Amino acid sequence: MTEMKSRGFLRDNGLSLVFGALFVATLVGQAISGTADFNAQQIAEGLEPVSFAEYVTSSSFGVDVMENWQSEYLQFFLFIYATVWLVQLGSTESKKPGEEGKETDKEQKVGRHADEDSPEWAKVGGWRTALFSRSLGTLMAVLFVLTWVASSVAGWAAYNSEQLSRREDPVTWPAYLAEADFWNRSFQNWQSEMLAVGSMAVFSVYLRHRGSSESKPVGVAHAQTGQSG
Amino acid sequence: MKGVKGVFVGYLVVILLGIAYVTALGLMGR
């Protein structure tokens, strides 16, 4: 396959750019509504309200952002790893039944089976091909760990400032990892991701969205697996 | 593919900066 001809930066990257812009817009929305919500609680507890700048540089804002990030990367990490070994008959999110596993070098176009335009690290073999063969799942796993740690550190600081405002003792970071606050924040985000992945996997069997890469072509049979429009 | 690589790197940079920023807020006890 030859390289697709560029149709200009914006059209070539529409999907990533639009979602990047939506990310920024919704993050601003979170910051504005978060400040208002935080101040409503401050006032209810007889404490001083904070400015917008103070709120977006607080660990309270930080943990609210990061607890959602970590669950997204957990979702993608699990989804990427699970779809190597598990299938869903009829789903666009699945390989065909019988293709479970890592597949042969020929099917994966690795080493001497690589095409002329295959990535260099798919051709060379050795540790570089081994690493490149796992790079997407590994990046998601690393980002999950980093974001989860970041959410625990910010959650710890936010928890301690609440403890102090109630004249209760602050806790150490390891002690925070055993607190219900940390696990409640983690699980409440995880459960929604698991439901979303399962929904996408099974809804795409019987339903269609004309023109979407996340859907089968409208007329394709329900039993047809791993085909996107 | 040059522009695509820029978007790829841009996403990574934003994510890593976000992680570093939130971790720093927590470590500073803000």
Number of helices of chain B: 1
Q: Count of helical segments of chain A?
A: 9
Q: Determine the strand fraction of chain B and express it as a percent band.
A: under 5%
For the sheet with most strands of chain A, the description reads: none
Structural class of chain B: mainly alpha
So what's the overall shape of chain B?
rod-shaped
Provide the residue-averaged pLDDT of chain A: 96
**Which residues of chain A sit in consecutive blocks of at least 5 with pLDDT less than 50?**
none
Low-pLDDT ranges of chain B: none
Q: Which quaternary structure do these chains form?
A: heterodimer
Taking all Cα atoms into account, the compactness measure Rg of chain A is: 23 Å
Mean pLDDT of chain B: 96
> How much helix is in the residues of chain A?
55-70%
Describe what you observe in this structure.
The complex is a heterodimer of chains A (229) and B (30). Helices cover 62% and strands 0% of the residues of chain A. The longest helix of chain A has 31 residues. By secondary structure, chain B is mostly helical.
Question: Main attributes?
Answer:
heterodimer; A: 229 residues; 2 domains; 9 helices; 62% helix; elongated; B: 30 residues; 1 helix; rod-shaped
How would you briefly describe this protein structure?
Chain A has about 230 residues and is mainly alpha-helical.
Note the topology:
The complex is a heterodimer of chains A (229) and B (30).
Chain A: H1 9-12, H2 14-44, H3 52-56, H4 59-85, H5 120-123, H6 126-132, H7 135-165, H8 173-177, H9 180-206
Chain B: H1 2-27
